[in-house]
Amino acid sequence: MEKTDLGGMRFLIHGFLSPDECQGHIHASEALGYEEAAIQTRDGGQAMNKAIRNNDRILFDDPALAQRLLERARPWLPDCLDNEWQLVGLNERFRFYRYTPEQYFKWHRDGAFQRSPSEISQLTLLIYLNDNYQGGATQLRDEADIRPETGMALVFPHRVMHQGSPITAGVKYVLRTDVMYRRIEAGA
């Protein structure tokens, strides 16, 4: 694995998953079955808005996968954020995303997952499961387009505006979760 720093706690991990692991996740996702993806509303609910997002998604919980991926990602993840938040793990709630031609996810910020008042996600972990398609670059504000590579991970703060540009040919698969942090108690 090799890290490419993009600045501002944004970075790539090349070779995070092997091509065989990626193919296994793609097959597993297709077996689960995809649904149209909704967007998170300000009140925490979900709503369909195809002007913003029209890709497919699967939500699933897998604590064992979260632990395996954490072991792999831990050397690259910030252990402490702002001297206030301590790394505790990955969110066991995963999402598979599938984008077919003309599908996209326009400019947005990722929502945080709050497990308790003192434990909340701070970073997004996107893992690209394939690269045999056209279009579909991930665009971060103030950053060149990120052309996904099979098995590459992208990590960035939830507050970063980003989008998945439209696919023009082929099918794009992504696995996403969140990096969880716990508030450090005063005097600890």
TrEMBL record:
- Asked whether the keyword Lyase is assigned, the reply is no
The GO terms this record gives for MF are:
iron ion binding; L-ascorbic acid binding; procollagen-proline 4-dioxygenase activity
Organism equals Metapseudomonas otitidis
Q: Which coenzymes or cofactors are required?
A: L-ascorbate
Q: Which InterPro entries match?
A: Oxoglu/Fe-dep_dioxygenase_dom, P4HA-like, Pro_4_hyd_alph, Pro_4_hyd_alph_FE2OG_OXY
Which one Pfam family would you cite for this protein? 2OG-FeII_Oxy_3
Going by the UniProt record, its keywords in alphabetical order are: Dioxygenase, Iron, Metal-binding, Oxidoreductase, Vitamin C
Name it.
Uncharacterized protein
PANTHER family given in the database record: PROLYL 4-HYDROXYLASE ALPHA SUBUNIT, PROLYL 4-HYDROXYLASE ALPHA SUBUNIT DOMAIN-CONTAINING PROTEIN
Transmembrane stretches, by residue range? none
